[in-house]
TrEMBL record:
Region Disordered, annotated ranges: 1-34
Protein name per UniProt: ubiquitinyl hydrolase 1
TM segment ranges: none
An annotated GO BP: protein deubiquitination
Annotated source species: Aegilops tauschii subsp. strangulata (Goatgrass)
Compositional bias (Low complexity): 9-21
Domain USP: 1-276
């Protein structure tokens, strides 16, 4: 049964900073790398990362930063992009290094676009005014998410549901989503977001912060895709698993080989990416057996 997944995250550290142009003092240290590891639970060691949330006052530029652990990242599909044009057997092709599917609109949702939207600064509305410690009153603000620490395995949950408070109903979103087999997470890291926001001015004051360098490699390889067929309240899950560059379709007790095109054209609900170095190490071990 496919149900909306509420985001269960716990803030683990907060701090307030001012942009370098405002003469901010050196910020306090962020959470240590051990935070979010779940007391050495194997699931946390594999899947746990740390997100960074910055809320910036639009009046004075004062920022409040929160760190929180995450086991997966929930991503919104681009609104209004139900773009499959009904081609029976679309053929994949490569253009400018990016693989796409012929017969689909150029506006089709992509995983990269979803990640860009996730890390894009958003203006909080009047009802969400945040209390600025510098202005000493509630002000309009901008909120921006980024990834401070990557996990060994990055899990992305695609929000394939919509809720209407007016019509008081929910529906499943069947929009198409293109996703790469190789994924570079560098643009979505806190270090990249801070650099684009402040330039190199931010790094001298944060030299001891370890914010400028991710603790783990940022290049990932896909190794599993979970799909869902059916409606919001009922349906069937199928997993595509990649072993030694061969894809397998795991449907209950049946496991069959499939090609890349079958995986790329599937309606992804969850995507799993492992660090590229770990993926190829696993492939080497499998080939040696």
């Amino acid at each position: 049964m496919l149900r909306p997944r509420p985001r269960a995250s716990r803030a683990i550290s907060t701090r307030s900073t001012r942009p370098p142009s405002l003469g901010s003092a050196r910020p306090t240290a962020p959470p240590s790398s051990s935070i979010g590891d779940g007391d050495c639970c194997i699931a946390h060691r594999v899947f746990s990362g740390i997100l960074r949330s910055d809320v910036t006052c639009t009046n004075c530029g004062f920022s409040s930063t929160t760190f929180e652990p995450c086991m997966d990242i929930s991503l919104d599909l681009d609104p209004g992009h139900n773009n499959c044009l009904g081609v029976a057997n679309p053929k994949p092709h490569v253009r400018n290094g990016e693989r796409s599917v012929a017969g689909m609109s150029s506006k089709v949702s992509t995983l990269m676009r979803c990640l860009e939207r996730f890390t894009r600064a958003e203006r909080l509305d009047a009802e969400q005014k945040y209390f600025c410690e510098r202005c000493k009153e509630r002000q309009e603000s901008l909120k921006q998410m980024s990834i401070r620490r990557l996990p060994l395995v990055s899990c992305f949950h695609i929000k394939r549901f919509e809720h209407s408070t007016v019509k008081k109903m929910s529906r499943k979103v069947d929009h198409s989503l293109q996703f790469p087999f190789s994924l570079d997470m560098t643009p979505y890291l806190s270090s990249s977001i801070l650099r684009s926001r402040y330039g190199n001015r931010i790094f001298p004051s944060e030299a001891c912060d370890s914010e400028a360098v991710s603790e783990l490699p940022s290049e990932f390889e896909i190794f599993a895709v979970i799909t869902h067929s059916g409606k919001l309240d009922a349906g069937h899950y199928v997993t595509y698993l990649r072993l030694n560059n061969q894809w397998y379709r795991c449907d209950d007790a049946w496991v069959t080989r499939v090609d890349e095109h079958t995986v790329r054209s599937s309606q992804a609900y969850m995507l799993f990416y492992v660090q590229k170095t770990l993926y190829y190490k696993a492939c080497e071990r499998g080939a040696a057996v």
